[in-house]
Fold this sequence. Notes:
41% of the residues lie in helices and 23% in strands. By secondary structure, it is α/β, with parallel strands linked by helices. It has a single domain, classed as Rossmann fold (3-Layer(aba) Sandwich). The strands form two sheets. Strands 2-7-1-8-9 form a five-stranded parallel β-sheet, sandwiched between helices. Strands 4-3-6-5 form a four-stranded mixed β-sheet, sandwiched between helices. It is globular and about 45 Å long. The relative contact order is 0.23.
Amino acid sequence: MEGGKLIIFSAPSGSGKTTIVRHLLEQPELNLAFSVSVTSRPQRKEEEDGKHYYFISVPEFKKHIKEDAFLEWEEVYRDNFYGTLKSEVERLWAEGKNVIFDIDVVGGLRIKKKFPEKTLAVFVKPPSVDELKIRLKKRSTESEDKINMRVAKASVEMATAPQFDKVIKNYDLDTALEEAHQMVADFVGANCEDQ
Length: 195
C-alpha cells in the first residue's frame, strides 16, 4: 500500500473528535478525504450508509476478517465490530488524498504501528469523564446502559493518550479546532498562510 498521509483522530465517545474531523475535512488546503469505517452495529436514524459507516451484518464482517480485507478491526462491544477496509484507504490514496480517520484508540494505534512514518495519531482528551457523560446524554442516541458502558471504557481509553503523537485537550472547541488544524497542516505540509 502506497499513497498519501494518514491522520488518525481517536478518543473516548463524546470527546469531540467527530466535530474536529468534520471541521478539518472542510479545509481544502489539507487535501483530506474521510475513511469510512465498516461496522456491524445497528444504523442510527440520522446515519447514512456509505457516508457515516458501511453497515454490514456480523457474519459479513467475520467473512471480511477471514479474507484479510481489513487494515485494522476491533470488536469494540459484544457483536459490535468496527474496521477499516484496505480497499477504502487504497481508493482514497488513488484519488491523491491524505486520509483522515475517526476511529477508536485500538484501531488508531494499530494503523500507526503499520505505517509509523506516514501517520499522525492524535488523541482528543475531554475535560473529564463526568463531562463526557453529560455530552453523551445530550446526544440522546443511546440508552443509559450504553452510556455507562462507554463511560467505563473511556477511563481505559484515556490511559492510552501517551501512546499517540499528539494530544488535544478539548476544553474549548474553537481552540481545539485551531490546534488540530495547525497539527494536520504541519504534518501534510499544507500552506495555510492565506487562511
